[in-house]
Description:
This protein is α/β, with parallel strands linked by helices. The chain is about 45% helix and about 15% strand. Helix 10 (about 225-235) crosses helix 14. Bound molecules: NADP nicotinamide-adenine-dinucleotide phosphate. NADP nicotinamide-adenine-dinucleotide phosphate (NAP) binds next to helix 1, helix 6 and helix 10. NADP nicotinamide-adenine-dinucleotide phosphate binds next to helix 1, helix 6 and helix 10.
Amino acid sequence: MNSPPANNIRSERVSSSITILGSTGSIGKSTLEVIALHPCYQVFALTANNNVAEMLQQCLRFQPRFAVMVDADAANQLEQVLMGQGSTTRVLAGEEGLLAVATHSAVDTVMAAIVGAAGLPPTLAAVEASKKVLLANKEALIMAGELFMTALAASDAILLPIDSEHNAVFQCLPPESRLAGSDIRRQGVRKIVLTASGGPFRDVALETLQNVTPAQACRHPNWSMGKKISVDSATMMNKGLEVIEACFLFGTIPRQIEVLIHPQSIVHSMVEYLDGSVIAQLGSPDMRIPISYSLAWPERMNSGASFLDLTSQPDLQFFTPDLIRFPCLRLGIEAAEQGGTAPTILNAANEIAVDSFLSGRIGFMDIPVIIARVQAQITCRKADTIAIIRQADEHARAIARELTART
Length: 407
Ligand SMILES: NC(=O)c1ccc[n+]([C@@H]2O[C@H](COP(=O)([O-])OP(=O)(O)OC[C@H]3O[C@@H](n4cnc5c(N)ncnc54)[C@H](OP(=O)(O)O)[C@@H]3O)[C@@H](O)[C@H]2O)c1
């Protein structure tokens, strides 16, 4: 019997109205590429910080009802140009604009793809408004995981992970325990294995790491991503953040999570069960795969990504990460174990340190040193109110700024 080509397997899907927070970034653009293949998805709103040129192109092509620019000058500029072009898209500004389009009653799905802590308010608001939230903005969950999961439990929201590793784990878990907030320890799961490429500096001489440039750090061997996550991948802080993310999403503990370096980025993560079975998710390293999976969930649809040809792949390798080379991974795991405001402090210090590295103010190996010093100076607390989280975040940023200025 002939099977139809996988690309043509499509079921009828009900139409869906989407807000993309961070549409001008790497994940935002990939989301629009997937949406462009499927007319059942309507773009309700697009948001950015200040990239007017990219937002203008997106508005002209996708004609959203709203476009939000956080920067007020950028919003004015966009509004003028769009009006001049006869566009009906309404332009909003600031954080209020983000909150309005993340919670609007006409929206059912929110792609959370703002980078960093700035994504927390609209992403949390989307959860509280019971949207289907596709979570790329891991920093939002890391800085306020407990609040986030409490809001999720109290709402009718669905939270689907976009990070390729967590999306892979989601696909490998038993269906009844996939949705965020469930406790996988009761489902026969022995451990979760998160894979990591090891980034561009996996094999370079340790003594050269301090002098690597931002351009070298952003040149990821397998993935094309925004600058902040590219540096996080180079330090492996990204994997530390992902251990914390996995604990919140899948109701597990750091000891149940193993990190393995897998340079080929083909196995996106695995779940090992008590009987010795290991279920892995494989695919090309292309974010359109987890994005289209989450958009279509619980169905499947064409993502536009190329199909995997295992016969033409190099050998798949797996290594234990070297925590001397990657101290940020250790810091991430320790913050996951500590809990409370420790992940909030880690995330804030990391954002400031990465920004300072990208602007040439500190060296690459200063990143973990600054984060560890910030952690040492702040006492962790229970992270159960937004006020406590804001305070820990601001305190950590202030100390990190002071330390980077002195470095
Ligand atoms: N890229 C990936 O492959 C990948 C994979 C897994 C997870 N993620 C996660 O997805 C998130 C987005 O990553 P990315 O690589 O797409 O980042 P990116 O390319 O840097 O894009 C960031 C987006 O956020 C917007 N933004 C930046 N600062 C903002 C602020 N203060 N307020 C509101 N919006 C702001 C940017 O707008 P402007 O363009 O106007 O600056 C842009 O639209 C991150 O949390 C990252 O960890 C990314």
